[in-house]
Design a protein that fits this description.
With 290 residues, the protein is α/β, with parallel strands linked by helices. The protein is 49% helix and 15% strand. It contains twelve helices and nine strands. An eight-stranded parallel beta barrel has the order 2-3-4-5-6-7-8-9, surrounded by ten helices.
Length: 290
Amino acid sequence: MLVNLNDVLLPAKKNGYGVGLFNTVNLELARGVLKTAEELKSPVIIGTAEVLLPCGPLEDLAGLLVPMAKKASVPVVLHYDHGLTFEKCMEALKLGFTSVMYDCSTDNYEENLRKVHELVRIAHCFGATVEAELGHVGDNEEPAAHKGMNAPEAYYTDPAQAKDFVKNTQADALAIAVGTAHGAYKWKPKLDFDRIKTIADMVEVPLVLHGGSGLSEEDFRRSIACGISKVNIFTDINVAAGKAAVRAIKEGKTCLTDMIPCQVEAAAEAVKAKIRVFGSEYKALTDMSI
């Protein structure tokens, strides 16, 4: 069942669990994600990000993911993650994505607000939702991420500003910077849980945690308890599928068709672990009418 962010995140926010966004670049990852979501009766968010488009063009992925989401037995949000340009966000909406994340977090506050507000007005006409980011969740390769080890507050989301931002943009979800980074961690992340709770108490819309791959189960559970409703995952399932292919080759499987089932199953197992930690198992039955 194809839905938007509000359909899965508002119940999650109300009832204190998280819903995973699992980015995909091909059919194998998509099958692993949706197979597990249906098995565990969990709502799920699936999609891709602008930086991943060289691995899977947007139009090609939409052709796969839209029908897969529609026929799924659980609520599925088709989400365009970290849209960096207005044009690509619009393309995603026209291709049938039900949600877009317009990442203007590296712009100044006023420009971020202006751009997001403009896209929100348009996306809502499509019946789609918009996620924004305030503060900046960097890459583990970015200098900002390394500097953030010494002065992380310089990159974190300001709670009062978050309240004003949501009010004036009408964004449906807000990604906040609280100590995570994208990609594989090169050091143990230290999350600002008090900041998560403060923002959650001040902002009405669901909050999003980017850079989820590599966090501990306790980090996830505590973040969700403090007010996170959506958690983004890619590296964990990407690595799991890659390792499955390596194992298959070591076992003498040299044909792609021999590797595909291994990759699907590896992605499915990685997703299963996250869904159970996030607490969304069986919530498609109890919190939503499908």
